[in-house]
């Protein structure tokens, strides 16, 4: 389980230090991909494989299913954590998420999200201002 948020800085060569608290869950491998809302998703390999299996069950005839599957898989890359606890963010993913310097690494339960710091601040201000409204909409979901 991934929870919490950590401020980090992307190194000039595109390396990003993963919080120590998250590293052990990524030791068996990890996959980083384009995410939603302008961030990157970082999954442990096993969680990524489960997600891809579920996406593979979606009807190939549905345009949205094809588009979403493509968005995640076209923009994905396997990553390894080096001995210093860093991963290399591919340049195309850095551009996708506008991550050039300060960033936030946030736990999102089954995955890690990597955000440009200014985007993250704006996004969290928005969802925090609507927290009650969002909770009410989800109340029928058993949460």
TrEMBL record:
User: DNA-binding: present as a keyword of the record?
Assistant: yes
Q: Which Pfam families match?
A: MraZ
Which parts form a coiled-coil structure per UniProt? none
Q: Which residues form the SpoVT-AbrB domain?
A: 5-47, 76-119
One Gene Ontology cellular component = cytoplasm
Q: What is its main location?
A: cytoplasm
Q: Which GO terms describe its biological process?
A: cell division; negative regulation of DNA-templated transcription initiation
Q: Name one GO molecular function term.
A: transcription cis-regulatory region binding
Q: Where in or outside the cell? A: Cytoplasm, Nucleoid
Which InterPro entries does the UniProt entry name for this protein? MraZ, MraZ_C, MraZ_dom, MraZ_N, MraZ_sf, SpoVT-AbrB_dom, SpoVT-AbrB_sf
Sorted UniProt keywords: Cell cycle, Cell division, Cytoplasm, DNA-binding, Repeat, Transcription, Transcription regulation
Query: What CDD domains does its record include?
Result: MraZ_C, MraZ_N
Q: How does it assemble?
A: Forms oligomers.
Family note: Belongs to the MraZ family.
Q: What is this protein called?
A: Transcriptional regulator MraZ
Q: Which gene encodes it?
A: mraZ
């Amino acid at each position: 389980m991934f929870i919490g948020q950590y401020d980090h800085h992307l190194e000039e060569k595109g390396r990003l230090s993963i919080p120590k608290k998250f590293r052990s869950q990524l030791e068996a491998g990890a996959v980083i991909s384009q995410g939603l809302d302008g961030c990157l998703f970082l999954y442990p390999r096993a969680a990524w494989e489960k997600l891809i299996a579920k996406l593979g069950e979606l009807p190939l005839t549905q345009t949205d299913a094809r588009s979403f599957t493509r968005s995640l898989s076209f923009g994905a890359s396997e990553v390894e954590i080096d001995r210093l606890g860093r991963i290399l963010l591919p340049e195309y993913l850095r551009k996708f998420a506008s991550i050039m310097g300060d960033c936030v690494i946030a736990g999102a339960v089954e995955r890690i999200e990597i955000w440009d710091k200014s985007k993250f601040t704006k996004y969290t201000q928005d969802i925090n201002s609507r927290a009650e409204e969002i909770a009410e909409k989800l109340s029928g979901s058993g949460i």
